[in-house]
Amino acid sequence: MNSSRLYIMQDFTYAMSLYDYNEYVTKSQKAQTDRNKALTWLFVTLMALLLAVGSIFYLISLYKRKQRDMQTNAKLLESLTSPSQLSTDHKEAIKGKISMRLLELLNGQQKNHINDSEWNELISDFQVVYPDFLLKLNGLGKFNTSEMRVFVLIRMGLTPRDVSTLANISPQAVSSIRSRAYKKIMHQKGSPAQMDEILMKL
Length: 202
What we know:
The chain has helices at 2-81, 88-106, 116-129, 133-140, 145-155, 160-167, 171-186, 192-201. It has 202 residues and is mainly α.
């Protein structure tokens, strides 16, 4: 009898121990799951925060860059539209310098067209003498580099034949550029000479 009670007590104790162990494992697993969920949410929150901060910094830098570009364009426009402070004599001297250089090229024994470096220098001097020409021309339409060079030389008073030589293009191309530009501006066909009249008024 005592032996039976002892076995019963042992079975009961074992059963309670097994129950406690299973409950411990269940609680441990639940706690681990809760920790994993918490870490996941923490990671997601941090990533969202970093993304938000990064977006804010990007928008700020984009805004600052746009402001700088606007200021640069405003200064450029101001420099193009502001009246020249140079005296008439100074302008005439620069105009004479340009004409002399163009004559040297036209009368040269070898190369008689303008290279890129000379074009840059010519345009720089040209804008001193005719500060509003390029600005007004750009207001009439969009023209490529070759067209702009032809227009500048025409405004300097050169003949189409000389323009052809200095721009290193055919006389037909010079005529075609001017007639196309007239049509682009006036929306009707016109002669190269009609485009020249427009250029000389700018």
